[in-house]
Amino acid sequence: MAQHIAISGELTTVTEKLMVKAILKHLRAEDTLITGLRFHDHEYGDVEIDAVVLFPDAGIGVIEVKGSQISFADGTWWQTTPNGVKEIDPAGQTFRGWHALRRFIERQSDWSRGKLRGDWFLAFPETVIELGEDMGPQGRRETIIAKGEEEDTASRIYDILSRPGGIGLPAPGWADQIVTLVQGMNREPSTIEQRLAQRLQHTEQLTAAQSKVLDLLRDIRRIEIVGGAGSGKTWLAMEQARRWAHQGLRVAFLTYTRGLSEMVRIAMSDLPAKEQPDFIGTFHYLGFSWGVRPSAAEQKEQDYWDTTATLLFAQKAELLSPDQKFDAIVVDEAQDFAASWWPVVFAAAKNMDDLYLAIFRDDAQDVFEGRHSRPDIELPSFPLDDNLRNSRQVVNTFTPLIDHKINMRGGEGFPTRIIFTKDNDSIEAADDAVSQLVDVEGWLPEHVALLTTQGRHPVHAEQLSLGKDSYWQDLWSTDDVFYSTVSGFKGLERPAVVIAINGFHEHVNVKHLIYTAITRASDLVILVGTETQLLEIFGEKHLEKTRKTSRIELIAHPEGSPFNLNLD
Question: Which of 138, 151, 226, 232 is the most buried (most CB within 10 A)?
Fold first, then answer.
């Protein structure tokens, strides 16, 4: 009897059960039937395959089973059920499933048996179809199993796969190796660390694929790339800086936050010297590198940072020698650059007419009202619509806070948690959430960040009192929870982020700030605040919708007042 492997457990419909029974009845002992295959593909997203037949001497048949009445008219597939008529795409679904499966197998590091041979098939066991009646260009009649043909499924697929020509069979033993691979692809990692490692590998593959954007734009000297959080902007910015440095250009890499510049510096430090930018740092540290040295008192004055520092930088920029200036400038998180900063940035160019310039921005992370600006030069703009970093649950949580298109590519994470507290209790509740993650659930401390929306967490304040240099080094060098404000953590990420909503500064766009905070989490976000705060930010309708789609968990902090949302 043929081997039957049910990946996702029991079959869900009567139609699927009947088809599986009919297929198994006519398979040989050496053949294998795999059902309920579910996995994620970086191009096609979440993939579901009803059945896969492995014939060791013929190839692979991928089958999509659709019950009820199926029809095709005017280029569209339709399914008629007792509940009505709906548009479907079984051919496209099965085509994508076959190609995603083939790509998954052939890209495994231990796969060495060559290209796979196979085809895809449709099973409509409740639909009568005349012989010779194709269902559109993608619905070849010979690849459709109609009503009354269920018992012929195995032989039909075998005969089609056995036809001469095309790709030959992989090396012997290929079918057994595929069984091993698919049994492991849906296996849930046993620990949080393993699960995070799996997601990180997926994200890194997607991000590396983004380099094709720069390949397409390689002949353009000046570009503006606009993309949401998690779209790979910073990686692309580093890659653009690396390419220009490799060309022999003197490159400056500018960011808004110290934390992001430290991350970029560390990430690029392993590159060959000829591929590293000549300067990596914030706008203000660029000015400091020219000899501007604010006093301790000046550093505490906001007016110094808003006005005085920029004027001093401009004066210094005019005195730079040619060898101190840059051929190329890359700006990440450009939406946070003040309008007065751009003339200083361009004063650092060797020759403005020949300057290579790339800026990367996400206007939804423009948290400072009145700060939003663009350089007063012509820049072609290119969008990034794919979110590569954040899990589906994280994306669904921040979606109502943005108005631009986004394609989720990040895969599965963990259900979002919203913890309701009483007034002035968010810090304590956030601490309790961190303790729950680390002490109870098994998250590593270095996987967790606690962010505040206004005042600093006491641990954050204590760490800063020891010096900013040591504080930012701790982000990378210690195995502890990291504490920061949302604005200070811009451009950075950790797998789990706890957000303590402890008020908002004046002139801050609240929705943009919360969006920025949520997107710092790649896998799990925990929002901590009062019921009033969270309803004002998201609205009751979204909380209810998101609870259903992302399995948001609503929790009342033990010390807080009960919440009254009717979301069950």
Answer: 232
Residues 81, 230, single domain; the answer is no
**Pairing of β 32-41 and β 45-55:** antiparallel
- Please state, in angstroms and as integers, the Cα–Cα distance from residue 90 to each residue in 47, 74, 79, 142, 492, following that order: 13, 15, 10, 15, 41
Return the beta strands (E) in 362-511 as ranges: 381-384, 386-387, 407-408, 417-421, 448-452, 482-485, 494-500
Write the Ramachandran bin of 467: left for phi over 0, alpha for psi from -120 to 50, otherwise beta.
Answer: left
What's the domain count of the chain? 3
Token output for 546: 């998101």
Place of tokens 């663009």: 374
Annotate 351-390 with three-state secondary structure.
CHHHCEEEEEECHHHCCECCCCCCCCCCCCEEEECEECCC
19 and 148 in a common domain: yes
Are 227 and 354 found together in one domain?
yes
SS3 state of residue 162:
coil
The boundaries of the domain holding residue 146 are 3-185
Give the per-residue pLDDT at 467.
Answer: 80
Q: Higher confidence at residue 47 or residue 474?
A: 47
Helix (H) or strand (E) holding 549: helix 540-550
Strand order in the sheet with 356-361: 279-282, 251-255, 328-331, 356-361, 222-227, 381-384
Residue 439 and residue 479 in one domain: yes
Alpha carbon dihedral 494, 518, 41, 199, in 10-degree steps, equals 20
CB 518 within 8 A of CB 488: no
Question: Does residue 564 sit within a domain?
Answer: no
Q: Which two tokens stand for residue 6?
A: 């049910």
| DSSP β-ladder status, 521-530 and 417-421 | parallel
Distances (CA, A) of 386 to 399, 400, 486: 13, 17, 23
Same-domain status, 306 and 358:
yes
Range of 55-64, 87-96, 534-543 with top mean pLDDT:
55-64
